[in-house]
Amino acid sequence: MAAPLASFALVVGLLTLTPGLDTALILRTAALGHRRQAWGVVMGIQTGTMLWGTASAAGLSVLLTASRAAYETLRWAGVCYLLWMGVQLLRNRKHDSSADGPEETGNPGGWWAGWRRGTLTNLLNPKVGVFYVAVLPPFIPAGAPHLPAGVLLTSVHVIEGTLWSAVLIGFAHTLRGWLRRPAARRVLDRVTGTAVVGFGVKLALSD
């Protein structure tokens, strides 16, 4: 498994470094000082990744490529969720007066709210499932137990994603001083909300 693991690590490493919806959510949450919630988002995203990888290794996510109806149902659920989340960010006008995190500010939800958001964002994106259907099987050596090998490969993606997320959270931590100003927080919410809506529209228009 050494060579397949190294090759897969390179492929998903490049994917991890590519800015996307996950990056926007992590940066926005962490930049507002909600460190626990930001880590909840990270763990939710990685939970979704592990579930998609495991489903692919077990053959379940093949349904997305075999059934147009299944793919379309999940795709439009994802579109609705992203548009709803983006609109909520664009309409947001209430911000915490401190940037010390939910444990000091009383930010509702905390870690679990972040975890739910990260998990739903990942699981409602059918392209993640299709990615694993297309990419995971070629990296599983012939004769290797399919499910354990698939979970092992997916774990590499989870580890890389978690490490990169730690870098993002550390970077966002440096912006807390600037984000103490309400105007700056509104700008961040509008930028993130626009990005999330954009991802939703892109998913709606994709085939």
Automatic annotation (TrEMBL):
<dbReference type="InterPro" id="IPR001123">
    <property type="entry name" value="LeuE-type"/>
</dbReference>
<keyword id="KW-1003">Cell membrane</keyword>
<feature type="transmembrane region" description="Helical">
    <location>
        <begin position="6"/>
        <end position="27"/>
    </location>
</feature>
<feature type="transmembrane region" description="Helical">
    <location>
        <begin position="39"/>
        <end position="67"/>
    </location>
</feature>
<keyword id="KW-0472">Membrane</keyword>
<dbReference type="Pfam" id="PF01810">
    <property type="entry name" value="LysE"/>
</dbReference>
<feature type="transmembrane region" description="Helical">
    <location>
        <begin position="124"/>
        <end position="144"/>
    </location>
</feature>
<keyword id="KW-1133">Transmembrane helix</keyword>
<feature type="transmembrane region" description="Helical">
    <location>
        <begin position="150"/>
        <end position="175"/>
    </location>
</feature>
<dbReference type="GO" id="GO:0015171">
    <property type="term" value="F:amino acid transmembrane transporter activity"/>
</dbReference>
<keyword id="KW-0812">Transmembrane</keyword>
<protein>
    <submittedName>
        <fullName>Lysine transporter LysE</fullName>
    </submittedName>
</protein>
<dbReference type="GO" id="GO:0005886">
    <property type="term" value="C:plasma membrane"/>
</dbReference>
